Structure formats: C-alpha cells, structure tokens
Amino acid sequence: MSATAVRQDTRPRSLPAGHVLRCAADRVRVELLQYVRRSDALVFTFLFPVLLFSIFASAFSAVPPLIEMGGEAVTQPESYLPAMLAAGVFLSGVQNLGVEIAVERNDGTLQRLAATPLPVLSYFLGKVGQLLVTSLVQAGLLLLVATTVFGMALPTEPGRWLTLAWVFLAGLVCFAVLGVAVAQLPRTVASASAVIIPIALVLQFISGIYVPFVALPDWLQTVANLLPLAWVGHGMRAALLPDIARHLEVGGVWDLQTAAIALGGWALVGTVVAAATFRWIKRS
C-alpha cells in the first residue's frame, strides 16, 4: 500500500469546524491566484460571456423588438443579458470547475493534496469560493457593460433583485456540484476539455441561451426543462426583463416555483453523485 493511501486512510474522521473553515479560506486564496494566472480560464470562462454579449447586442441592435405591448418592448439585445448571465455561471461551474478537477485528478495534483492535512470539504469550499468570487465579478462586469455601453435599463423593484440573487446563488451551487460530478468523466488530462466542453456547448444551445427558448421545437423544450440551465435562464429573464417578456415563455408565465424545485433537485442529485464518485487518487 502506498504512503499516500495510508495517509488518506488515517485522516481523522471529524475535524473542528474552525480548522475546516481556515483551510477553506486558504484554498480560496490559492484557487483565485491560480485562476487569474490561467489565460485560458480568463478568456473562455470569465470574459467569454461578456464578449459574446457585446457581439450579440451590437449585431442585433437594429432588429425589431421580440415583443411590444402596452408601451413596453423587449429587444433582442436585452434578451441576451439574462442569457449571458446564466451562461456565465454555467460555464464557470460545470465547464471550468469540471475541467479543473479532471486535470488535477489526472495530473497527480489531487494525489499530492491527499498527502496533506487538507480536508476534502475545505478543498471543495475553496473551489466554490473561487467560483462565487469570479462569478460575481463577471456578473457585475456584464451588468456594467449592458448599462454603460448599450444603455440598457436595469430593474428598480427590490423583488426583482431578490429574484436575481436567489436564482444566481441556486444556479451557482447547482452547477458547482454538477461540475464536480462531470469531472469524473475524462480519463486523461488531454481529454478533459475535449469531453466536458462539447457537453457544455450542447446544453447551452438546447436551453435557450443563444436562441429564444420558445423558438426551440416542442420536444427540445421538453428535454431542456428537465435540465437546470433552462431554469436558471428562466429565472434570470424573470428578474431582468419587463413583465411582458413572460408572454415569450412556455405557458406565458414566470414559473419561479418550478425553477426553485428543479434547481434544488439537481443540486441534491449533483451532491450525491459528486460525493459518491470523488476520489483523491485516480482509479487505475
């Protein structure tokens, strides 16, 4: 039996909460430093939604509104703001976190961490902390670009901002645990991006991120409604778009209760799968 395996097996079963939190805070700092030093992560997960939103908002600025009613209108560029907010959280969680953990498992990083006193919970709290910080900065940058560059108006009702906050946090938790789960799929460092990125791309297209959700075929809407990204996008639209935008949704209503149930269910499923499949040491 290897020394690493012995070290992993002899860890204390329970640790003081203070020790776990101190280790987690240190891991957040380490994860953030590693994140900003990776140019690929900055471009393809942090700046990608901002750049894509800028392209879409510019390209569709002269297109007629998606809907006009009672003196209100929803333009195509406005519809891309909640879509890119949802995509940003999704890419940071499922894609970036999934690739990160897959690479760390296959290049031996996790095996080396297993030989340290770092608790598993602190490792994951460090990942989630990095995800929370970068996602909040990314969302703030998106809203700043939307208001200052493209002159979009943000909601003034506190209830809409509360909706945005809980949908954002629920989506972040959901996508974080799903990122841990999908990280178990790649078998090598080289295959990490090749396996996870196509999955993330397909899910974005069928969840109404790049095209209006109601424009998708009925069978594809049914499939997408079984997945969490469509509900995060729905919640973001409910928070940021005028109320007339609900007529562009399936059934013509904001179904935030179902969104909460769907995200909670997926977070639970992802947590169970991640806990059951995560290993410090790569299986042969």
TrEMBL record:
Its main location: membrane. It is a multi-pass membrane protein. InterPro entries: ABC2_TM, ABC2_TM_bact-type, ABC_2_transport, Nod_factor_ABC_transporter. It is found in: Membrane. It comes from the Bacteria. PROSITE patterns: ABC_TM2. The chain crosses the membrane at residues 41-63, 83-103, 131-155, 161-183, 195-216, 259-281. Residues 40-281 form the ABC transmembrane type-2 domain. Pfam families: ABC2_membrane_3. Keywords: Antibiotic resistance, Membrane, Transmembrane, Transmembrane helix. This is Transport permease protein. It comes from Agrococcus terreus.
